Amino acid sequence: MWNSKVEDYIRHHEIIDNNRLDEAKKYQASSGHFIEQILSHSGWIDEEQLCEMYCHLLSLSHWIHGFQLTSAQLLLLDNVNFKFLAKYQMIPVHLDDGTLTIAICSPHNQEAFDYSRFLPYSVNFACITEKDFELFQEQYKAMLPNAQQIDISGDNVEMLKELALGAPTVNLVNNLINKGIKLGASDLHIEPINGRFRARYRIDGILKEADPIPYSLQLAVISRIKILSNMDIAEKRRPQDGKIEMRAGSTDLDIRCSTLPLGQGESVVMRFLIRNAVKFDLQKLGYAEDLIARVNEDLKRTSGVILMTGPTGSGKTTSLYSFLNQINTLDIKIITLEDPIEYQLPGINQVQVNPDIGFDFSAGLRSIVRQDPDVIMVGEIRDNETAKIALQSALTGHLVFSTVHTNDAPSAYTRLMELGIEEYLLNAGLVSIMAQRLARTLCHHCKKESDEPNVISKYDLADLAKRYNIENFTIYAPVGCSHCENSGYLGRVAFLEYLPCDVEVKRLPKDEKLLDNLYLLMKNNNLRSLKEDGFLKALQGVTSIDEVLRVAG
């Protein structure tokens, strides 16, 4: 009966092809094993699929809340034989008002189920994977009063390596990475705080706490990441950088890793770069049609400098990649100078700078102009020499893309002037400057009409709607549901501020009043600011007013 239910589930959900299922059925008939166990051991279904199958067939939930028992609760549960339950891959994970939740890996351990029914609690069962079971076991062991802490200081390299290669550590690191990919995280942060290591994911630009890392595995996890990214696991006094290339399920993944020594230990940040996942398309980034038209006109130029400004994580590099992707044809030679190379672009020559050997942006830029490129992208303008070479390259017939760190588009002028760039070079070389931010988009499954009073009059939204011919609009607010992890937001969109470096801008004196004059010119020419572009997207129901104020307020 059970094997028939499993077979029906697999066929209905098309988990594997019929040939493999028939092969597993033949082996099951001769061995007597359960059919899903045969499929799992053969590698034809993974742990997550097995867990979801058990949840469906047994009408149980998938326990995703981590090991939630406290030390005080463990003392109350002294009448529960954890060791006996662990023998059958079961573990209590939560206690609330007399109800004990026991997480299970398999429904076939009848002896353990019988034992659970005689416990002096109302027992709920939930399903977990074997990897989660091993992790919860480590967390449970670390909380025991007589738990022995092993000396794994920086000097004990062999012990660090041994623990880093152990199954609990390997599974924990894999779980952290896999969950980050499923949640759509851009980064994973692991940092020491108050005597423990905290793990957090950055999802749509916001940090959210992940499952806790057991005390006994903390240094082992850091060492595991260092080994995978070819860092020195014994070095804890200096920052290190590395890279991991791996496959998570069906996803090809590059992970940039960085360690930083802190007062309480080492902080590790892992940036997830999913190959072939980013679509370098301006519409998909959320650029408005009128701004796309302006950018497209700039991209037809054969010389000049196009600058993108904004803080780290504002999507500047993705936008520049989108520009390059649009003009990447057989008759144009494109060379980029990056630190680091984030995504491989077919047909484009990408160069990695290495300041440790003196090959920085300025040195690299001097070299690549001798390679006869038509288009150059410089990852960032940080100093006078890089800025000067970039602008001079524009004067000698190159189209140059680059970034600077400023808050808005007009401030890029003052930044370049601070770097010592002469007025004639600014007027002759610059084509346009764009400032960008990334904001979260409302989850379309749960967003609701905003009930905040006077929001339209407070931010002059009716006037903005009239300027852009938006007749009927509704302001929405976030709610939260299962699709968006109860955040109310799902995905991100770009806000853009565009400043053309045209004749009017070139006529302005480049003095202490330049910024005020540029802001006035943008207003008179109906060039919207970052905040106005955000409000425009709020009028279109893409994002919320609160998100606009958070990002561009």
Summarize the SSE layout with pairings.
Layout: H1 2-13, H2 18-31, H3 35-41, H4 47-58, E1 61-62, H5 71-76, H6 82-87, E2 90-96, E3 99-104, H7 110-117, E4 122-127, H8 130-143, H9 157-164, H10 167-183, E5 187-193, E6 196-203, E7 206-209, H11 218-228, E8 240-248, E9 251-261, E10 266-274, H12 282-285, H13 289-299, E11 304-309, H14 316-327, E12 334-338, E13 349-352, H15 361-368, E14 375-378, H16 384-395, E15 399-404, H17 411-418, H18 423-429, E16 430-442, E17 448-449, H19 455-458, H20 461-467, E18 476-477, E19 489-500, H21 503-507, H22 514-524, H23 530-539, H24 545-552
**Overall pLDDT:** 87
CA-based gyration radius: 28 Å
Q: How many separate helices?
A: 24
Instruction: Sketch the major β-sheet.
Output: 7 strands, mixed
Say what oligomer this is: single chain
Describe the structure.
- Helices cover 40% and strands 22% of the residues.
- The protein contains 24 helices and 19 strands.
- β9 (251-261) and β10 form a beta hairpin.
- α9 (157-164) packs across α11 (218-228).
- 35% of the residues are buried.
List keywords for this structure.
single chain; 6-stranded antiparallel β-sheet; 7-stranded mixed β-sheet; alpha/beta; 553 residues; elongated
Summarize the structure.
The protein is of the alpha/beta class and 553 residues long. Helix content is 40%, strand content 22%.
